[in-house]
Amino acid sequence: MAYSLKDRLFAAILFNGVEFPFEINALDFIHISSSVRTTLPALTFKITDVTKFLTLNNFLVDGTRITVTVGKEKQKSSFSFRLFSFTESPGSSPVYTIRGYLDSPLYWTSSLSEFQKGGSNTVLASLASMCGLRFSGTNTSDSQVWIPQNLRISEFARKVREHGWINEGSCMQMGVTASKELRYRNVSNFAQFPVKDFFDLTKITDQVKPITAYSVVNKAGFFNVSSGYGSTRISQSVLADDAEVSSLTLQKNSSKLMINRSVKDSISQNKVMFSPIDVGNVHPNYERAVYQNQRLGNLFTLGMDVMTPEFSESDLLDVVSVSVETPEIKGSKQYSGRYFVTSKVLYVKGANYYEKLELVRHGLNEPREQTQE
Fold this sequence. Notes:
Elements: E1 3-5, E2 9-15, E3 18-19, E4 26-35, E5 42-48, H1 53-56, E6 65-72, E7 75-89, E8 95-102, H2 105-109, E9 116-118, H3 120-130, E10 134-136, E11 144-146, H4 153-162, E12 172-176, E13 181-186, E14 195-200, E15 208-210, E16 213-218, H5 220-228, E17 231-237, E18 243-245, E19 256-257, H6 261-266, E20 271-278, H7 286-297, E21 302-308, E22 319-323, E23 337-349, E24 352-361, E25 363-364
């Protein structure tokens, strides 16, 4: 029997297709997270097993399939994971904290040796299919023979993403959603993405989801030291002269970058990197792509964490619109506008359901001289 509260909140957990009996046992919380920074979405939940259901059925073994269904009113979503680890607080009614990874064991742990031919979009689509994942991508201009070198498939996918290229100004990012979709996007095309969800601090309609809490995060200091204030990459080749890249084409998605102009102008030389020697078996922009994807990605330094009690349609690398403007808080308008989703968390505890979205963009939407000179 599923966990249900007054027809408001619904949760069910199945182990290898067998439902955990909540009519006697208890649920503490469910936490599902996905991020562009992690290999696969992760599951953590805490339950009390009065009936010894898990041990009697031998479900506490590595790789057990765990299906989690969460619903609120008329909305419902199901997710499939594999058991990775657990901790037990022993007693007459043992309490388990169970952790899992998205149900794609091949992507998680299998290695690959066969050469892959085509553009990065084609190769990533093939890897997704191989691992039981759906794929959503974009056409690229980086066809070559890609050599996995017996890397795990997830590691090889990230390497392909790092060297992905469309044109000068493209910034390729990748993430796997909790709904088992590998997404590959050019996040420089910010203005061309449709808005998936609207969130508002003060207004609630059928089309606008409420914000119950938010925080603004500025990570410019770390990323500006890394590459925001400039860096150089020197490519070496046995077929051509060395090439140096130290400048980029940028499509701003905010009024102001989180870069201090006087600091930038005062730096004569920042980090200098050298690429491996090219022997002619990679696409023409293979090393430039690494520089470009990393440096343009590091300019997404203004973040916002938004919490809502509603089911959202948005997921990794979608664009959402946020409004936190209030008359009482001066300057709040500069944080409103469009953002990319880089992480998503679903959380159930007691009678409450929450989603937390981690959002990023280049900077502020109103000029403020103290952030850039």
